[in-house]
Amino acid sequence: MSATLVIQTAFLGDVVLTTPLLAALAERFGAVDVVTTPAAAALLETHPAVGRVVRYDKRGADRGWRGFRRVASELRERRYSRCYLPHRSWRSAALALLAGVRERTGFAGGAASITYTTRVTRPPTGHQVERLLALAGPSAAAPAVSLSLTPDDGAAADRWLEERNIAPGFVAFAPGSIWGTKRWPYYPELAAALAVPVVVIGGPEDAELAERVQARAPGRAHVAAGALNLRAAAALIRRASVLVSNDSAPLHLATAVGTPVVALFGPTVPEFGFGPRGARDVVLGHPDLPCRPCSAHGPRVCPLGHHRCMRELSVETVLSAVTAVAGREERRAIRTGH
Q1: Which has fewest Cβ within 10 Å: 63, 170, 268, 318?
Q2: Whose CA is closest to 97, among 120, 69, 121, 66?
């Protein structure tokens, strides 16, 4: 039984960026248990740093006091010695308290930090990975953002591609985001301009966006949004030459599986700590717009009504970056024989 618990119920991308922290804690204490959302659970249940995943559907089946008490009771039965809280929320802090965990470590400064037994200063700059790793204390080297995909995950991705006669090396698109202003509007035009197969990934909620892309490049653009589970979708991204993504979770999935990214930032900026981390990645954004960034997450609607940060990021600019990155990947495959 693990003595260490991590409670991370933030967005999917945040959970992916927590995997280095999980690895650092597992190296010190052994495999850790993690409380997370049902959406993120599948990504962690095969991770070598994780012993057990506790699903907490805080916005669904476990909404309200009854669900909260159920999860707290389940955790209390396991008698954890220590808990790490990367998500600065009252709900996570209260869950650790009610679970009876003696040592509770989180970031200083937030209102919930009054409940922690150890408060760590959150680094004000740098990538979110390093910020989260600060909770584990000093270490010799930062573990990588990682997922542990199974052979079945790869087989599911391969079957999907084979059924459509798509060879590895296609370009993947991730046009969705729960934040409306983070969505670059020209994915259909980019698909039409490319001469290679395009696979559009995402959840069922992104199917309409994916179908718009497909309509502009019939026969070359294919809709995977909602067709594969999360780990199989990550395996699909692994087989792409490049992923074109907004500032959203697929960007971090690509980081975890080693696929280069052309990342499109509009209302947010990489300096917030959520940019790609690979040496081959490219970040694009409006070069000269005084209203940018406009919020920490990107609002659902542009506060000024013009959405210039995304509308003025041209297809030509993105196409040039995608072509360059995809070309580098082809040359790399030839050199390495992969």
Answers
A1: 63
A2: 69
**288 plus 164 within the same structural domain:** yes
State the pTM of this model: 0.93
User: Alpha-carbon distance 283 to 304, whole Å?
Assistant: 24
- Count of residues for the chain? 338
Claim to verify: residue 204 and residue 287 sit in the same structural domain: yes
Domain that holds residue 106: 4-136
Residue 19 tokens, joined: 């995997």
The helix (run of H) or strand (run of E) holding residue 92 is: helix 90-98
Q: Among 136, 170, 205, give the residue marking a domain's end.
A: 136
Residue whose C-alpha is closest to residue 32's, from 67, 70, 75: 75
- Whether residue 141 lies inside any domain: the answer is no
CA 26, CA 20: separation in Å to the nearest integer? 10
Q: How far apart are CA 58 and CA 65, in angstroms?
A: 10
